[in-house]
Amino acid sequence: MKKAFFFSMILLLSSNFLNAQKMEKKVLRHVVMFGWDKGVDSNYVNKVVNSFKALQGKIDLIKALEYGTNNSPENLNKGLTHCFLLSFTSEADRDAYLIHPAHKAFVASLNPSPTAVTVFDYWAK
Predict the structure, then answer these.
(1) CATH code for the domain of 114
(2) Per-residue pLDDT tens digits for 58-99
(3) Could you tell me which of 29, 39, 57, 59 has the fewest CB atoms within 10 Å of its CB?
(4) What CA–CA distances, in Å, run from 60 to 49, 53, 56, 85?
(5) Cα–Cα dist 101/107, whole Å
């Protein structure tokens, strides 16, 4: 009887531990895509890219940041040329990032503004 009880407890605790691990690994993705008119100075666009990349060093809520330019042969990007993928551990962290002074300063620095912008957030599965 004691063996069955202890075995049941071990299974229960293991199940809870595995569920806790799964919950910890949830990642909120924040996708930002920009596109500029062809006449916009490439040095300016590079400055924007570098400023966006620098946000990770200024806002510790950003757990990961990736970026790149469109290279799809499908031609379905609708003018979007640059993509940034940020990872957060919670919606609260994402929300705090959005109002963080460094993020607000970055947004204010977008002059000229991108002609195309898309933002999309999702929980990774």
Answers:
(1) 3.30.70.100
(2) 999 999 999 999 999 999 999 999 999 999 999 999 999 999
(3) 39
(4) 18, 13, 6, 15
(5) 10
